[in-house]
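Problem: given the chain below (289 residues), write out its structure.
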Amino acid sequence: MSPERSRILISIGLFLILISLLASGCSPPAAPELKVVTCTTLISQIVRRVGSGKIDVVNIIPPDKNPADFNIKQEDIRELTAADLFIYDTRLEDKFPPELIESAGNLGLNIARVELSGNWLIPSIQLEAVDKVTEILIQVDGKNSSVYENGAANYRKKIKDKQALIEFRLEDFQQVTGKVFKRTNVICAEASVEFVEWMGFNIFATYARPDSLTPNRVKELVDGGREAQVRYVMDNLQTGKHAGEGIAETLDILGVTLSNFPGGFNNTDTWEQTIDRNIGLVLGAESPH
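Solution.
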């Protein structure tokens, strides 16, 4: 074969390889294989991360709303029409009775319940939630089990790493500022109690919803809070973000609003961002700067 012919064949081969690489690089990503509908962002953010691109997730109850008060509309249930799987928290079972789910007319819909007690923002409970959600996804879509197992393993590591960082952050803040806030007394919205206790505070008193704060109840909280040297009033975004403002102002103490759901505040779509924002609000209120 002549040198000229060899050069031509090599050039053609390189050209074909280049075309192949360009074609593979320009091809659209594979479409999600599973459509999952969730009741809250506590579940949807886990599904999205464990799913690793294999799942299209739609959530029903907005993250800034109190699920107990949210009215499920027919248009919300319409999301179930083309879904493969609906996952809901057993604490919201009364919001999704069988007849309402059946009204979507999806005979092939898989329905799964997640039963967990406690605040899902707490790392140990978030780990339990990951395990339960991953198990559900594998049961419904076994062919992608390795994807879900890998996604869950990666996320579990992030949870444990974040827990260690948070514990260090809280201890470091106290050492740097000299302000010991752990085990200090706080007045807290009931919806935030478990998370606030996990941070290390002592719950002196709680209140349920803004409409539960009658003048007599407010006086009780103010008088008792003053005697107990309460340091914070901690509201809950979903149940009433301004509920305790008056109490904090009267006692002349710090007031913060915490969120129980990813996405409740802007730029908090993940568990890590949500827990960081909550802790940042507490430490920011204490900051000497």
